[in-house]
């Protein structure tokens, strides 16, 4: 057995290591500064209780972006030096964020061990490569992101750190081959186990969904399918699940080879960045000549996000979670006993609220950030939840789950088409969505993103919006002056949340303007960017009349958009005449 020694290295605090909504995300050039990663990892170990470090079993993997392989070796050497007993690594360092959550919750190691936590190496949907982003976040033993109590402690530690421990002489581990390598250190044995990235996750999916029913749908000549992994880690799962398990054509997979730089693209599954899929589905300007597939979906870099498309048809994430919730019990075996409750993030449209009300389900509105759903799920209050930011998931794990969302949609389609695959007309994605609108009403919805805006300017814009909230009559005068078709603002506030499980309070979670007819304008600063500030503007309008639910959404929302831009003085503050991305 190879032996290693522990070295204590002197270091000094480095500014700016405050974890954001989902961990620490910075440019690779920032991460590769001497001691940058080391300081953060040691600060994390120091923030955890002793049993989560000494003798613990730690998962270390991620979306495979540039610098991951080096980071895995560094973290492994630091884990060894800090008394961790085992490090588990997905083959080639690849594990999607949902798969990490599944591995923590479900996997049993070759020696019967269970994981106590994970370092996930990803910057999610941010681009990768030497000049782009890297990221790291810590997940707890429930499979979910560390709560604020821990991330605050990590940050405090980064401000005072003066040394870290590392096993410098531990040889680099070959992460390309599955197997266990054992080493001996001052505190005893240390194992590194490299395992297949997909098996545990595939097993979990098979226990949730009726794979046979989905297989029938996917192998029917009537149903055509396309999945775009945008060169993220979802590719490592897509082939196994969609092709090998469910019988989809290999040609239905786009960009499913994980790449360190995501092929130079922006691995964010939306109408702007998933260009190839959008074109193939017959959406956007670049309509293809070929008949588009019936169903299309995409994932982000770490495969926790999803975008669902029908033929020439976009499903908003807010509608997607509402539709999954409305159909889950009859279409997905995991939910056959009923739903415990449902939840959405505040800026997500109220489509889910209407379903919850109709089905008499517990309902929660939480701040942006998946971790807020975790407490509800751990307490048995919530089965299905979703966010406007292309995140959908359930209590099978404690992260959102891109492939789960696709399987949920395929389950609904399989159920609705049970009788139609032989003869009869296929019920399409668009049919399902339009029927949903006719039943529950439609929440017209759009999001405008202003990326990389000057941070000072963004702050001023937000401060001005808060200031205006103290005088609604003045706001309504301005609104009437901009557009007389828009209803009246009846309430305006900053969203504040009291967690029903632990009683913790989160303030300043988004600025809201609420209108008499149920319309909403929400302004938020993104918590996931790595440069400047990103302003998000969420615009929503409810239409109950079934004869009016079929309009083009940008057209239906135009008056409200105009009000939002003028009321916030968007161009004046940011100098931008148009958003970077519209979804
Ligand atoms: C991450 C989190 C999501 C959250 C999103 C918000 O993806 O996992 O739960 O919705 O960030 O991003 P934003 O950039 O709007 O803060
Ligand atoms: Zn992600």
From TrEMBL:
UniProt record, GO biological process: glucose metabolic process
Keyword entries, A-Z: Carbohydrate metabolism, Glucose metabolism, Isomerase, Magnesium, Metal-binding, Phosphoprotein
PROSITE patterns registered for this protein in UniProt: PGM_PMM (PS00710)
GO cellular component: cytosol
Gene3D superfamilies: Alpha-D-Glucose-1,6-Bisphosphate, subunit A, domain 3, Alpha-D-phosphohexomutase, C-terminal domain
S-adenosyl-L-methionine listed as a keyword: no
Alpha-D-phosphohexomutase alpha/beta/alpha domain segment(s): 17-164, 200-309, 318-418
Xref: PANTHER family: PHOSPHOGLUCOMUTASE, PHOSPHOHEXOMUTASE FAMILY MEMBER
Family the UniProt entry places it in: Belongs to the phosphohexose mutase family.
The protein's assembly and partners: Monomer.
Record-given protein name: phosphoglucomutase (alpha-D-glucose-1,6-bisphosphate-dependent)
Species assigned in the record: Citrus clementina
Organismal lineage: Eukaryota, Viridiplantae, Streptophyta, Embryophyta, Tracheophyta
